[in-house]
Amino acid sequence: MAGFQKISRQQGPRPGRPRDPEADRAILQATLKLLTDQGYAGMSVERVASEAGVGKTTIYRRYASKEELAVAAVGILRDDFGPPPNTGNTRTDIIQIIVQNQVALEHGPGFAIIGALLVEERRNPALLELFRERIIRPRKDEAVMVLQRGVDRGEIRADVDLEVAVHAMVGAMFARHILGDLESIKRIEETVDIVWTGLATKPRLPTT
Amino acid sequence: MAGFQKISRQQGPRPGRPRDPEADRAILQATLKLLTDQGYAGMSVERVASEAGVGKTTIYRRYASKEELAVAAVGILRDDFGPPPNTGNTRTDIIQIIVQNQVALEHGPGFAIIGALLVEERRNPALLELFRERIIRPRKDEAVMVLQRGVDRGEIRADVDLEVAVHAMVGAMFARHILGDLESIKRIEETVDIVWTGLATKPRLPTT
Amino acid sequence: MAGFQKISRQQGPRPGRPRDPEADRAILQATLKLLTDQGYAGMSVERVASEAGVGKTTIYRRYASKEELAVAAVGILRDDFGPPPNTGNTRTDIIQIIVQNQVALEHGPGFAIIGALLVEERRNPALLELFRERIIRPRKDEAVMVLQRGVDRGEIRADVDLEVAVHAMVGAMFARHILGDLESIKRIEETVDIVWTGLATKPRLPTT
Amino acid sequence: MAGFQKISRQQGPRPGRPRDPEADRAILQATLKLLTDQGYAGMSVERVASEAGVGKTTIYRRYASKEELAVAAVGILRDDFGPPPNTGNTRTDIIQIIVQNQVALEHGPGFAIIGALLVEERRNPALLELFRERIIRPRKDEAVMVLQRGVDRGEIRADVDLEVAVHAMVGAMFARHILGDLESIKRIEETVDIVWTGLATKPRLPTT
DNA sequence: AACTAATCGAGACGGTACGTCCTGTCTTTGA
DNA sequence: TCAAAGACAGGACGTACCGTCTCGATTAGTT
């Protein structure tokens, strides 16, 4: 999985002509464009090559398959995100994170990529795993961390599984997409509020 | 969308040779088998035809595309479900529904199909819509109905959006699959309990 | 080697759509054109397909490889030849045959094809053998037959190996091509005359 | 055509690192091996490089193309030949030459190379010409020279074109290879005898 | 000893073609 | 009219070479 070697620490320059970083960039860019415009099924390695002004070899030298290429392309989206929000208000923070992710997913090839990975899951589970590691899990960790701050501040009970809470809040967004139900900031807030009640140390007031 | 005409309403026997119902069966069966064994990407209409001992034409006369075929195949799974549970205990009922769906999804081609539909979403949104209508929405409606019974019994507040509650509970399951996080009955119960607190008319007792 | 099935004797019409004879024709024609214009190395199956207005599959359904396609294409040249000459004069007949072959080889892809087959000989000897059977051997047999008539007429000795005589006469033509030596009718006649002396029943007069 | 500069006439040692003669050797050796084992089509510059433990650059610095490399590799075979035979008997000498060539061609990549050059003839005629100059023509000249000695001795008529005679004798060998007809010393002798009759000053005795 | 220049192995590059596979359509014969 | 068989156009896949290029490291002669 050459495309993903992270920090090749302390490994003197390998022999041979180094890879062209410009090609790296052009490939991922073209992939992302096609992915966004045409969806995963409509994107082809051949088109990516031609659009990026690059030989097919140059792509396959970096990524072993179309799937892997797509994953890598989505991977670069991550960097657009700033640091996790920290307004001092846990509820505000968690809403902001979810909205952020929702926006990224909805505008962009996010769902299409996830779809492709689910399709390939049986044949090539490593790809989905890779995507999790690189893209999804870091986000989840952010969300959990924000909730953890809530625990530290005494806003959130210490005896609940924060992961499960994140599953519910983030999953609601997935569910709405798959169900075709309307998504909106309001609904995200409603979702958070419902879950929040289950997390909060102070019971909400009984309905009058 | 030939595969889905359920009730050919009152249309005297059409001329010509009638369709072979055995073929219908064999096609869906073979599709389901390949879908389950190889995943969506590994299933091909050609293989289905040969496995079912049927001409490709016979498939395409019934389903307009590979996607539609897959959707129809998944559709037959639905019938395995009995009527929605009604134990008198809303919490028990909703847990049972979610577990039921979780099991069906995890041991079948469910996620692979959903993936394929997400992949195709941009080019062919009708398919995802079809799947929603036929498979997903009925289940959601069941869940909402169960919660509505809770409202009627006074267990659940009347001012919350029950759909949002369902999103959170069902979505958590999706989220765990996509995140690769462990799924279990225990976690499903935890999820329901957290959400339940947000729905219940009686506040939970403050932590001692 | 589907392209070469000869007489499928008495085999009731096979099921399924029959092969398009127009495609057969267009493929071989396009192949021959590219072969002649660009040589064997410059011809590509992809170009043949596009030039013939045909899918690549349609070609590969008939011929297992580029080589086989080329052989088949050259095969259709054979039909341009009329019956072997029979002027009553054996020497005239044999000259005519050789000239005929020389012309066909020199203005067509003949040498390029033979070259390709020699190149492939070690990996795929069947192809060269196929070419021999279909194209070369029939011609040799014609030449031998003409000489045999000479034997019958008493012009040619009965104790010489006529095949060897044909090798020498035809081979001289090959040799000149490979050596890059000038070829001409005059040289063909000289070749035949030299060999002829070795074949003739009547010794040539000693040089004065 | 760097590979063939024989005499770098009087050009004081060029600056820079001199070429490694060991590389020269290893390249041609590996080429010859692959050529013999796999045929021309099965040989690739990449494999030669790796087999010779040499960079591709090092090959392309010496030879401009795969074809040229192959030609050069075959060229080194030539040196295995001793001086042309001179037994005093012209017929014996010429047979020996032809047998020698036949053996060299049949065991070795000779025909495959000739094939490759015929394939490339239209696009790159210079290569075939190079091969003629370097490999084929010298041999033909040897054969003609041997026959010329026969003329000088009065064994062979002075009014025949000796080249044509060589074409016939050598060509018969080519013809047998291409036709797939059995080759043997006996047949070579028969060939020479037939041609010899056409060349000889003394007519052969009429058949009894 | 520093400089210049060509060589070396390694391997990336754009490009082209290969042969395979699949999709969705079309065209046969037979029921 | 439907069925089974299978041919059809089209297009993408991933592989293999070709001939070129760019690296850092040698290895000479020249200053």
Characterize the structure shown:
Four copies of one chain form a homotetramer. Chain A is an all-alpha fold and 208 residues long. The first copy, chain A, folds into two domains: 20-76, Homeodomain-like (Arc Repressor Mutant, subunit A, Orthogonal Bundle); 81-199, Tetracycline Repressor, domain 2, CATH 1.10.357.10. Helix content of chain A is 65%, strand content 0%. The first copy, chain A, is built from nine helices and no strands. In chain A, helix 4 (66-75) packs antiparallel against helix 6. The first copy, chain A, is elongated, with a radius of gyration of 20 Å. The N and C termini of chain A lie far apart (60 Å). Chains in contact: A-B, C-D. Chains A and B meet through helix 1, helix 6, helix 7, helix 8 and helix 9 of A and helix 1, helix 6, helix 7, helix 8 and helix 9 of B. Chain C binds a DNA duplex (31 and 31 nucleotides) through residues 12-20, 23, 44-47, 49, 53-58, 60-61, 64-66.
What is the CATH class name of the largest domain in chain A? Mainly Alpha
CATH topology of the largest domain in chain A: Tetracycline Repressor, domain 2
Radius of gyration of chain A, in Å, reads 20 Å
Give the proportion of residues in helices of chain A: 55-70%
Strand content of chain A: under 5%
Layout of secondary structure:
The structure is a homotetramer of 208-residue chains.
Chain A lengths: L20 H22 L2 H8 L3 H7 L3 H10 L14 H17 L3 H11 L4 H28 L9 H18 L5 H15 L9
Helix pairs in contact in A: 1-2, 1-4, 4-6, 4-7, 5-7, 5-9, 6-7, 8-9
The structure holds a DNA duplex (31 and 31 nucleotides).
